[in-house]
Amino acid sequence: MAEVVVEEGADFPAEAEVAIVGAGAAGLVAALAAAEAGAAPLVIERDPVPRGSTALSAGLVPAAGTRWQHERGIADTPELFVADLRKKARDTADPALVELVARAAGPALEWLADAHGLPFSVVHDFDYPGHSARRMHGLPSRSGSELVDRLRAAVEAREIPILTEAHATTLVADRAGRIRGLFAARPDGSRERIGCRALVLACNGYGGNKALVARHIPELAGAIYFGHPGNQGDAVLWGEALGAAVRHMSGHQGHGSVAHPHGILITWATMMEGGFQVNLAGARFSDETHGYSEQAAVVLREPEGIAFSIFDARIAAICRQFEDFRNAEAQGAVLTAETPEALAALIRVPAAALAETFAEVARRVAPDRFGRDWSKAKPLAPPYHAVRVTGALFHTQGGLVVDDRARVVRTDGTALANLFAAGGAACGVSGPEASGYLSGNGLLTAVALGRLAGRAAAAS
Ligand SMILES: Cc1cc2nc3c(=O)[nH]c(=O)nc-3n(C[C@H](O)[C@H](O)[C@H](O)COP(=O)(O)OP(=O)(O)OC[C@H]3O[C@@H](n4cnc5c(N)ncnc54)[C@H](O)[C@@H]3O)c2cc1C
User: Fold this and answer.
1) Rounded to an integer, what distance in angstroms lies between the CA atom of residue 44 and that of residue 19?
2) Please, where are the H alpha helices in 134-174?
3) Which residue, 265, 343, 350, 460, has fewest beta-carbon neighbours within 10 Å?
4) pTM of this structure
5) How do residues 343-399 score in pLDDT, each as one tens digit?
6) Whether 134 and 14 share a structural domain
């Protein structure tokens, strides 16, 4: 239970210059930045091993104007990135925050590569919806587990302590709202009392808290939550108790292509490269290129909340760069057939209807009846593949409002002096709708705000 207690002159047996709650991407990046700025950080993590939603993700971070893009001849600028972010969220996100993170992301990735040895490269062989340049950057396995493992290794190499199996439950503040420390529960029932000069909240959002999801995102109340279960909304609960402003609590990242019942993410490259989704009747029901986030609710509105993602062997070859996709194949989630009729038999949808859907797609009318533009997509060729999928909630995008130093802001607009937020703990740049989520907005604020928060906390 997240709570705040007010204690004047509280004293603590242990003191950290910068305490950081959460050891996902945001917390680990904040720790590296705080240490580089000369402070001694301590990371506090409830799990035995840092994983977070970061480990569940594809680990792809959008950034513009990077050297990896330059090497591939990809023309891109932070201005173009800002325009894409604003367009996807229909100008509902805080424009200053959008500018801040879009400009900070590229330098942050180059710093992680140069100072901490993370071997990023840019995904250059397919487009992500809403990005007008190829700007998603990832590590060799294209997995978030590699990202969090490499960040943890960098933190350990700097001898920054990570206190694991420590569940922060209580913030201690003085009457002026200055954070003095926190209490963390240990598995043996004991409680650590840790003082701090500054505190960074990097404990993500409220996707794992069913009551908060039902209140703020009712359309996904019954959906599978695909993120880290330990993300219970503690940052917003503490923030609200301290008079902090929260914003866009309905904003979130959903995904309309999670293999069911296997529970494996099927990359949206399947759609962007020319695949499509059908329902149990074998019929398409949407423009699949709008974005995977809003597609979660769209798929869940179809009968039984089920769809089939359909693509071909060429697209499958592109998707194999993702560990998740390879796992899906290994687990038998990716079905294969030479004809639409044979595929229909495998997935148990009406053969005539699926054949008609294939024929309709092959006509490549642009735009089609759902508004999809097929002009850039290559026609599908046999063998064909299908994956049974459902819609899921990945993470929440609403959260604590922060300023240009990642300081948490009160409802009256003033900043709390020594409280910072990054990643999913902070309100992101997606606005209040699922459709505002541009691919990578999650790790964008984890990495960009994590670095800013770590630096600013060290200086506070
Ligand atoms: C399947 C999936 C795929 C995704 N793919 C992408 C992608 O490719 N690109 C992208 O940008 N985003 C993606 N996302 C979103 C992305 O994973 C998150 O936005 C990002 O990881 C958030 O980082 P974080 O550090 O804020 O949180 P997390 O990585 O979740 O870390 C938070 C940590 O805080 C800990 N914690 C929570 N409460 C407490 C407490 N009270 N005390 C101590 N510790 C606590 C948790 O245990 C956790 O380790 C994806 C998400 C999912 C679920």
Assistant:
1) 7
2) 144-157
3) 350
4) 0.91
5) 999 999 999 999 999 999 999 888 999 999 998 889 999 999 999 999 999 999 999
6) yes
